[in-house]
Fold this sequence. Notes:
Blueprint: E1 8-9, E2 22-26, E3 34-42, E4 48-49, E5 52-53, E6 58-66, E7 72-77, E8 80-82, E9 90-94, E10 98-101
Antiparallel strand pairs: 1-10, 2-3, 2-10, 3-6, 4-5, 6-9, 7-8
Amino acid sequence: MNPGTGNSKSRHDSTQLSINDKCKLLNWEGTSEVVARGHISDIHPESKVHGYKLGPNCYRIAIEEVVMPDVVFYRSQPEFVTMEDAPGSTVAWPIKYILCDN
């Protein structure tokens, strides 16, 4: 359990995170604001998102709801710059900024 967040799981307990877990994405600039909601769609470092490997520190997240549309993606690309571009797509997001509910 992540202190202060009830029954949420985070990177600190990443062995419990799994594909299809519903999650909240926190601002990767460290403000702890929720910028979007979705679910984990892939956790394998060799998997790709928009042509780039996830790597060891990111998960692929399917975005279902954007909370803060002006937040810039962790890995911006010409067609995906801010969260406003994300609904219905997948993004790479740093594991330490993902909170998942039980």
